[in-house]
Design a protein that fits this description.
By secondary structure, this protein is mostly helical. It is built from 21 helices and three strands. The radius of gyration is 23 Å and the shape is globular. Bound molecules: zinc ion. Zinc ion binds next to α10 and α11.
Length: 510
């Protein structure tokens, strides 16, 4: 039975969360419609709001109420109940917010803001030496931050940063899953490269006008169960999803790609994030508290990758989608007009090593992530120095993907993350793929006729499974626990490998 202290604690946490949602709306606006001359004022608005939100989050009253509520668990609040889980997660958030001293928070904000500007110039000029001093500063701050958070017993400094994005996971645990995954992926990619099968992507090239593509995107969103009365789709340079508030989930995409699937899959990816945001119990009794929030970045990414890859690149999807795609984009695409389901399925699943992570196919993608994981872990431990990053990067691309990196722009300067101080973020991309594959197997065991349903455009049972088993829990369970609860097994590389081996095996005749 929730006590008065618990209710007051939830109220304060919800207020901080509401302030956060105002900041999200300003952020969305900045990436979509804000005129360039409004950027400076927006930074001031965001800065002020961040300060107020931080004060609310770290208010001593929150600490007092947390301590009182923790004393109630086992007495009036049942251990293992949603309320007890909520208290555990509110404690985590409070500790993370209060452990960082104000001067570090300020230095972090100013340094990463300058570092990301420097990164833009360095990337443009493909000049790592220009970015190196800034990466050095960011790494120093990251090490200080890790020290403030505290390194878990038997762990390493990198774990303290991982914990921000994927609560509770350690570098050693990631290594346990990544190591066999890497060996099996390398073997699979070698077999693909040795295959004589010819798989082209010509059917995907369509320079359709943005409004035709937007129409297709919105049609697919509606069919898959994204509520457009509680969300919208806009255009931006870097696609993202923002779950701003109950009834307000915003997706963005872009229509600049050479292939129409660039925008379509981008939209479906963000929609996976968006369905998660819409499925969270945001307007229930725990609105604005951890029980109405996503578990982790890895679990969030599992939702986006599931709709983009497991659904979107599958044969059943194309059986359903092809007539609709032809109707809407056909007038702009000669190759598409004559294409068969098989043509689309094969073209959407080509596998070719490439330099840029965000453009990588499903088969090679995770190797890109593992390279970054190895490098940032080395930087954190001090085993790798900043000046040696390009060398280590290029060597890793040679040995993992068989590529000779031509310049730093297509090498270690391609991603923005490190300039923002997002150390420990990259592994969550692969964790997302792994969780997606493991969930996908569990779903297919439960919904035996899923492929037949998907090929008819019946996406409701899949969405319902995700809402019931993943979304509705909010942060009640940590990612590892949720994975075991839903699939009966700890996270493993096997389901993802089974998926890739079967799909690429079919496409390349392996
Ligand atoms: Zn994503």
């Amino acid at each position: 039975m929730p006590t008065q202290e618990y209710r007051e604690l939830c109220r304060l946490v919800r207020e901080a969360s509401t302030l956060g949602s105002v900041s999200s709306l300003l952020g969305w606006d900045q990436e979509t419609y804000l005129p360039p001359k409004g950027v400076a004022a927006r930074a001031e608005q965001q800065g002020l709001l961040a300060g107020i939100t931080h004060e609310r989050k770290t208010h001593p009253r929150v600490g007092e109420l947390l301590a009182a509520c923790e004393g109630e668990v086992g007495r009036v609040i049942e251990p293992g109940s949603p309320e007890a889980a909520n208290i555990r997660e509110m404690r985590r958030d409070y500790d993370l917010a209060t452990k960082l001293p104000k001067d570090l928070v300020e230095e972090w904000a100013t340094t990463t803001s300058k570092a990301s500007e420097e990164w833009k110039h360095a990337r443009e000029k493909s000049d790592f030496k220009r970015f190196a001093p800034w990466l050095g500063k960011v790494m120093d701050l990251a090490r200080r931050k890790a020290a403030c958070y505290g390194v878990p017993a038997g762990g390493e400094a990198y774990d303290a940063l991982l914990n921000e994005y994927e609560p509770g996971i350690t570098a050693r645990e990631i290594e346990r899953v990544f190591t066999p995954l890497k060996a099996r992926l390398s073997d699979l990619i070698a077999r693909v490269r040795a295959s004589k099968a010819k798989v082209g992507t010509k059917v995907l090239s369509a320079k359709a006008p943005p409004d035709a593509q937007q129409g297709l995107g919105e049609f697919v969103l509606g069919a898959m169960g994204f509520d457009l009365q509680a969300g919208r789709l806009d255009t931006t340079t870097h696609p993202f999803c923002s779950g701003i508030a109950p009834g307000d989930t915003r997706l963005t995409t872009r229509y600049k790609g050479e292939k129409f699937t660039d925008a379509l899959y981008g939209t479906m990816h963000e929609m996976g994030h968006g369905l998660y945001e819409q499925g969270l119990p945001k307007d229930g009794p725990h609105a604005g508290t951890p029980l109405a929030e996503a578990v982790s970045l890895g679990i969030h990414e599992s939702q986006s990758r599931m709709w983009e890859n497991f659904v979107g690149r599958g044969r059943p999807f194309w059986k359903w989608a092809l007539p609709h795609v032809k109707k809407r984009l056909g007038p702009h695409a000669a190759a598409l007009r004559k294409a068969s389901v098989d043509d689309l399925f094969r073209a959407a699943n080509t596998c070719t090593p490439s330099f840029i992570r965000v453009e990588a196919d499903e088969g090679t993608y995770n190797l890109h992530v593992m390279i970054r994981f190895g490098i940032e872990r080395g930087l954190m431990s001090g085993g790798l120095s900043v000046k040696d990053v390009p060398g280590a990067w290029n060597e890793a691309y040679r040995s993992s993907l068989g590529l000779k990196v031509p310049d730093d722009r297509r090498g270690c300067l391609q991603d923005v993350h490190w300039s923002f101080g997002l150390i420990g973020y990259f592994p969550t991309y692969t964790l997302g793929n792994l969780y997606a594959a493991q969930f996908w197997e569990a779903i297919n065991k439960k919904i035996k006729d899923l492929p037949a349903r998907l090929s008819k455009g019946d996406f409701a049972p899949l969405k319902k499974w995700l809402v019931t088993n993943i979304h509705a829990h909010g942060r009640r369970y940590r990612a590892a626990e949720l994975c075991e609860k839903v699939t009966g097994r700890p996270l493993s590389a096997d389901p993802l490998m089974r998926h890739l081996e079967s799909r690429l095996g079919e496409v390349y005749g392996l």
